Every structure is written in structure tokens, then in C-alpha cells.
Amino acid sequence: MQIIDKNKDYYDYCQFEYGPVDKTATYDRRGSKVITEEDFFRYCYKDRLYYDKNDNLRYSNYSYSCSEPLVLLEVGNIQNILKLSNCDFKWINQENNEFTIRGDISILYKFDNGVHICREAVTLTHFKNKREFRWPYRVCELKSAQDIEVNENHYEHAIENPVLRDTPIPAIIPARDFYIALDNYFRSAYNDKTIDINNSDIDKAINHGFDKKTSFRHPIK
Prior knowledge:
The protein is an alpha+beta fold. It has 5 helices and 13 strands. The strands form 5 sheets. The chain has a 5-stranded antiparallel beta sheet. A two-stranded parallel sheet has the order 1-2. A two-stranded parallel sheet has the order 3-13. It starts with a strand and ends in a 14-residue tail after the last helix. The model is unreliable at 61-66 (pLDDT under 50).
């Protein structure tokens, strides 16, 4: 599988492991978003942050869903339900709403039911657990990918085609596993047909790390 994107992720090297890049499957990741470790944890703990009546940011230990935040990282046809635990929330400057969040991340559930839920090949998003009962007890067990619902409200804040090299993900999902999941997804989606991506000369330059505005300017005389 070939990957087209100017941003490089931690699993991209796998496309070169066995010789020339195989173009029978293509992941066009252009428009990807590079997220930092801080971005990652802020997103995962999003349901614990709120603004009070004075418009000051606050942090709550209470979640409206499960006792610990869960987020979905979908890679092709594989759904990884990530659990965030041992949250360490610290204010840097409360008046300016500056804070840091850290914690432990693990894969609580991994589903490989041959279905794809989200709009993009790789998506980090919050989701609705169809099996969750709030009364008298909150039950958060998931049985399969069919229990996961991602709606328009989730998509509004979802991170689609994220570049995850600076997040905790490389420590829990090996690069080869990530790449193989995507490779299988695109081969299945396109029935092993070569997908021609129309790349202009500028696109090709950007994919190799050049800047289209500054790299090719004529020198000022």
C-alpha cells in the first residue's frame, strides 16, 4: 500500500519494507492533522472539561458515561476502544485556562468484525455506547462493533486522518499492525484494483516535504 501525504506518521515506513511501493492499494491521507501528546489527552478527556457560569474552565472527576473516558480509534475495519485512566490534571494558570492533562492509555476492546464505521480510513472520535444503561447502574460493556455509534455531533469534533507519531498510540499499536489493518482495508474496499491518484507537480513536491509557496520562488534580483 502506498501512502500519499506530506506529513509522516510512525507506520509509514512499512510501505517500503518489501521493495517498491505497492500501488494496488492507496491511502490518500492529504489533509491529515498532526496532533501532539497534549492534543491527544485534551481530546480524550474532553467530557471532563466544562465552563462554569462565569465562563471559567473547570475540570470534573465525573463523566456522564463511564467511570473512565473511552474513545474510539478506528483503523480501517478495526475498532480500538481506548481507555484513559489515572488522570493527572494540573492547572498552570487557571485565570488564563492553561492546564496540562496526562494519564495512562490502554486498549479496552478491539473489534475486527469486518465493518467500517467512520467516514475516513483512520478516525479518533468519541462515540455512543448502544449498550449503555444509566439507571440504576451504568453498564459500559461493549460486545462488538455493532454497539458503537458515531453520529454527527461526534463527527463535529472528531479528528479524521490524524498523524499519531507524537501521541501514546505507537506504544500500544505496533507500526506493522497499524499498516496491515489499513492495507487490508483498502485492498478490500477497492477490490485489489490499482487506484490512480492524480498528483500535480506541486502535490508531488509537497509530499516530499517542500513548501509550495517558498521552496520554488525565483531569487529576488
